[in-house]
């Protein structure tokens, strides 16, 4: 393998970044970013521990659920999950975080980098209620960098084109995967039924 181990070596392969690309990185939530965030039902939250180990966590809610408090601050509600809290443990130890907002059918994405903190209560928690459920925690992100990411990845992957999707029956169910990975003494069908019921009943 030809290992790239310096910025200079990287630039020799990739080339220099265009001036317009450099200028697209801003430090605030402008009207366009606010509009995209309002229409995004799905965001990826990236965090890392002090030792450099990383975690990326999917976050889903009805579009408009991510709050924009001002041009530098946004808020994501926490919803019930597996309680591993990898992202939250990382944020407690290392506040740097990255976000990737997706809008269904849109090939461009919105990238946000900043500093995150966990809060257990604040006046805006009333605005985070979904289906009558108030979150126990929220992630507040102070925006340091924000920019649009071009459509190339989504065009290459054809992500939004159903005709390119694999048949779901060709892939194992979550119950099958978990049964095999951790040797559970339960059938895949029974485990799938349990997982599906739990997911439907414990969304919020």
The main sheet orders its strands as: 2-1-5-6-7-4-3
Unreliable segments of 5+ consecutive residues: none
Mind describing the biggest β-sheet?
7 strands, antiparallel
How helix-rich are the residues, as a percent range? Answer: 25-40%
Q: Work out the strand percent.
A: 25-35%
Number of helices: 7
The value of Rg in angstroms is 20 Å
Q: What is the residue-averaged pLDDT?
A: 96
Specify the overall morphology. Answer: globular
Determine the structural class based on helices, strands and strand pairing: alpha+beta
Number of strands: 7
> How many angstroms does the end-to-end distance come to?
47 Å
Secondary-structure element sequence?
Answer: HHHEEEEHEEEHHH
Secondary structure elements and pairings:
Layout: H1 7-14, H2 19-23, H3 31-39, E1 42-48, E2 54-60, E3 67-70, E4 73-77, H4 86-93, E5 96-102, E6 109-119, E7 138-149, H5 152-157, H6 174-182, H7 188-201
Antiparallel strand pairs: 1-2, 1-5, 3-4, 4-7, 5-6, 6-7
Helix pairs in contact: 6-7
Task: Summarize the structure in words.
The chain is of the alpha+beta class and 204 residues long. Helices cover 29% and strands 26% of the residues. A seven-stranded antiparallel β-sheet has the order 2-1-5-6-7-4-3, covered by helices on one side. Helix 6 (174-182) crosses helix 7 (188-201). The longest helix is centred in the last third of the chain and has 14 residues, at 188-201. It is globular, with a radius of gyration of 20 Å. The termini are far apart. The relative contact order is 0.14.
